[in-house]
Amino acid sequence: MATVQIKKLNARAKLPTTGSQYAAGYDLYACLGGDGTVTIPPHHTVKISSGIAVALPEGTFGAVFARSGLASRDGLRPANCVGVVDSDYRGECMVAVHNDSDSDRTIHDGDRIAQMVLLPYLPMEFEEVSELPQTARGEGGFGSTGK
To answer: Is the pLDDT at 146 greater than 80, yes or no?
Structure first.
């Protein structure tokens, strides 16, 4: 099991939680000031504070995904579809939440706004070449392999 160091930037912040023993995603919670609510107009994006910062293990990143119920029921999702929290980032974990619906949506302090999955990655080096190795697929894309 990976260890993730976490720092509360706000006393009201909630630590990420998981919904079940084998759930991959850890819920991120809204940590709002003022009256504790933010209204997102239709087809707009608002950055929502989580009140936490994390130190992820080297060789990993936090992939921030939509919560399925929030996206399908309320039309709310991360604006960039999948956010990335790099292992060397030490700032606040913010979620830019986009409202895909035609109605105002309100986020309340303590609401679950997204989920983060810890994923490994491979560092890359790019080598410019004049030709790429051939494959059976070749240049076929956008549905070229079937329906």
So the answer is: no
